[in-house]
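Quick entry between incubations.
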Amino acid sequence: MKKIRLLPVILVTLVATAVMLNACSNGSEDREASPTGIPVLNRALSTEPESLDPQKGRSVQAADVLRDIGEGLVTYDAAGNLVPGTAESWEIATDGLSYTFRIRADARWSNGDPVTAADFVFGLQRLVDPATAAFYAAEIGTVVNAEAIVAGKMDPAELGVTATDERTLVISLVRPTPYLLSLLTHPSTFPVHRGSVDQHGAQFARAGNHVSNGAYVLADWEPGAIIELHRNVHYWNDARTSIDIVRHHVVTQELAEFNRYRAGELHVTSTVPPENFEQIRADYADQLHVAPTLGVYYYGFNMTRPPFADNPELRQALSMAIDREVLVEAITGRGEAPAYSWVPPGIHNYDPVQLPYAGLSRQEREAIAQSLYRKAGYGKNNPLRFELRYNTSDTQQRIALAVQAMWRKVLGAEATTVNVEFQVLLDQMRNREVTEVFRSSWFGDYNDANTFLAIMQTDSAANMPGYSNPEFDALMQSAGEQLDLDRRRLYLEEAERVLLADHAVIPLYFYVSKHLVKPEVEGWQDNILNYHYSQHLSLGAAGQDGRP
Amino acid sequence: MLRYTLRRLLGAIPTLFLVIVLAFLLVHAAPGGPFDAERALPAEIEANIAAAYHLDEPLPMQFLRYLTGVMQGDFGPSYSYRDYTVSELIGRSFPVSVQLGILAMLLAAVSGISLGIVAALNRHSALDKIVMGFAMTGISIPVFVIAPVLVLFLAVKLQWLPASWTGSEGALRLVLPVLSLALPQIAYIARLTRASLIEVLSSDFIRTARAQGLGTAAIVRYHALKPAMLPVLSYMGPAVAAVLTGSVVVEEIFGIPGLGQLFVRGSLNRDYTLVLGVVIFYATLIVLLNLIVDLLYGAIDPRIRRR
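Done. Structure below.
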């Protein structure tokens, strides 16, 4: 019998592997090996940005990277204060309907071309152009003609944004928009280098093609792994940039991220694993940053179907029976704040209204909840039975089980918990056919109460409960017409009061941002927006070789 | 042989077509769309996005459009990586998965078969028990436990190896993922080899060989190993396919840009084209690998070739 002929097979495979290894390492050769001495910042993204085209990005993570490579007319400093960006100054017309921006004379694209007012016009037209299919197209809906262009009824060139000269940009509005400046920090309003779009088309947002106007420029992008940025030497404020290379690592697993941080591969994490939080708080006290952020975790009622439609007392009973302090202490446990308002505290020029029962003790709340529950026609022999839907995840499940137990204990109500995949839950919330009570959350797009309250208007697509109250809509409408910021604020607060009194949603807690930051990272400031521009950071002596 | 290969390849076309149809229907039947999010979009914007990706057309139209594309090798644009096409994404991540997969399977085959032979030849000895104990552990501890433990000791505590794919650029970054992928396979192959070799060693023709005075080494090498390899080989076919198309868990833990995480991201985001692309690619790969295994069978066992 012949010898086994496995050997040649193995040899061939080995050679093939060697060739492949070679090919693969060639693939990442354009990612410059960093010579020691060049400051490299390694930070984590919890998910891959879906696009680095400023108008096509959608996720928080895409915006995080886009804020490093691009810059709007207005931007934020390290503490989260609005400061001039590519525009050095602006004037607001007394009627609040027109903003005139003066672009910096030394603003440059990463290829050295000057950034002009026309580049901003191009970017904003691109944002509303239906052909771009931009997710954030509606954000600038108050700009003249924006809505008609998005709806495909008008040419993008008709947008109320004009370049009166190379460096002057005028934005005209249909109604005052006090949060316009914060909108203009959002990557979807960033300018776009027309030449590179014309040249590369849909591929202009790739490494090598991407021309950007921020502190960094896209140098390499390995989807699913890493986005590498290099200093943009043409950036107007380049003298203030300290770190030369920024690597955004895509790390989807929280525990893996923590291990990478401990192994010295990351300077900054995107979050902290919940299971290890107590230990991390003890062991990394000086490196752990927990800060309030603009996000609310809530349970919503389906306001279009029984038993919760037209039954505000029952909704209030369920809302009052939940002990939020227990949820944030025993379950989420990472510094979250119990939510008694819809708008998170700390938002710019706003004082969130509290739920009417916020001042009552636990016992008082439970007593009122029980009487409301009975008033709604339910009791021991006739318990309320309904479904609580949430998306499959450990934290959601633990919260749902705890709330289910509270409802049972305080009221005797029988909630069945149903967990479904996230996309399924989204579908069910929007259709409002099977949902009764569901879990959701909302994160602000900009630092203004409007971003939270506007979604509860009748015609808002993000109004998951299907809440509709003409009084609330009218107050929001009036707020939108106010020029005086204090008067506007009063309208918004009144709107929140109406919303809370209707109990269409049960705000449970406000999210916090959680980061581990190596001690050698300097310039890090916690802020409510959770924006941390790489250009504001620097590395102390220990981090100069790229390995903390 | 050539005719056989051709016949098998042609026979695969209806299978692949069926896979495409089923996968297409299934992804579109799943609730939720590719652009749904908690941040729900206004109707006009949703319409613009649907139009940009032809999602507003009737399903049969979408299917025809897709099929026409696939026949020309175009798997369409990805919805969740809007700057890339599906073909590009698969083209980028497959080599990464292949690199890891081949290294892991080589390691698994060489060490698994060797361990299996050692255990079989020393049946019921302490050595056998140690090897099989190791194999049992390797099979029962899931990779999502093994991998973090390896990271904890070798990357965090000892700092010998990078903890992730992007933590280093050298070949060292391959070590932990390859080990994590290979360990369960080593265990499984060792058990298979042992069981199969023991069975072969007790068959009549081996007894004859022994009666003729052949030593154990010669018997194993010239007579027993080849037939004993058949079950191992038939296990290796699908196992290689599974490893080549990426291990989701290992890729997530080490942040490896392979096919597995592409697939998961695609499914979670209802990225229809990406999921379909990976499924079709995977199906084609399985068909090819099964064919290769069958051809190898023939090479090892002449009885099969003759049939």
